[in-house]
Amino acid sequence: MKIVSYNVNGIKARLPRLIEYLDEAKPDIVCLQELKSAEEGLPLKEIEAAGYGGAWHGQKGFNGVAVLARGTQPVERQKGLAGDPEDEHSRYIECEVFGLVVASIYLPNGNPQPGPKFDYKLKWMERLNDRARALLAEERPAVLVGDYNVIPNDDDVFSVRAMADDALMQPESRERYRALLAQGWTDALRTRFPGGGVWTFWDYQAGAWQRDAGFRIDHLLLSPMAADRFTGAGVDKDYRGREKASDHAPTWVTIR
Fold it and tell me: Which residue intervals define the domain Endonuclease/exonuclease/phosphatase in the entry (predicted)?
């Protein structure tokens, strides 16, 4: 079973690339981020025609997450995270599909830091950690998939110096990500490539793609019962180089 994290950076703008990916790679589950569309404007017919059911948590103009499943309809369990009743951002959706609990996550960027956006990021991560702890208590195979907007290690970025002041690499961001892993979650891509040097994102600016100046911010975390079934992980990098592509590449894990 192939489970994919794919920040599409605007589902309407990238719809041809998304349908192309679904048709060519035929993943079983795809967790989308940054839909940038209200739910009434989502291309549901096109997704269904490609053979996928979907659970959606849209928002006009920015954010937005979804879980797609090949040949079936994901069963929605939860939208959003507890702990902040005033938070209206569409950044979390959790579903049950193929016997798994799967969450699609679009974690706040947090720039500029320091400031209120960075404070929001850290508080959001604490709320995510609370939800992750509750999922582990269910003792189910679960996968937390998405754009975490955290560069966990120095070898997860093309240049430490270039990103040193970015919210993605601050000690507070990394500490909360490590706290999440310490609960018992397995970072699938890190497990497959322990030496780092694997990117999932390349900015549109300054020829980042052409220079391979990227970093790893898209993560797939496995609960112990899912990690027991782990068989592989990788990045479908070539899709980043296609015409009008997202700045993220599809990032995946396979489990039995």
Answer: 4-248
